[in-house]
Amino acid sequence: MKINDIDSSRMLIHVTDAKGNKDRYTILSTNALKDLREYYKQWKPQEYLFEGIKNKQYSTGSVGKIISAAAIKAGIRKHVTPHTLRHSFATHLLENGTDLRYIQLLLGHNSTKTTEIYTHVAKSSFDSIKNPLDL
Q: Which residues form the Tyr recombinase domain (predicted)?
């Protein structure tokens, strides 16, 4: 991710060259923006927001290792990958009532059929919902 991919005025992140060489926009958290600004002030990256050796972008493997280490540090015992974070993001959006078509756009899916994979995970939260006809 390059520094210019963060659009703080619109609270968006421009995701370039994602799976299938597709570009898309996704939402930027206010909390994440605050942390990114602190990070930027301290580390002063030049091109990539998170720069590795010789100011180059991190490899996919390095990102995976960083996420795994953060999960362990947070006390999460499950194996966590970048895709786990993507899956959690989509599931939380769905459970909070975000329309499936918006989630599709945020994830860069061509079809809602692909996005519907996340609905089976969210259905477990439906168990706690009481039907008004049963009250």
A: 1-134
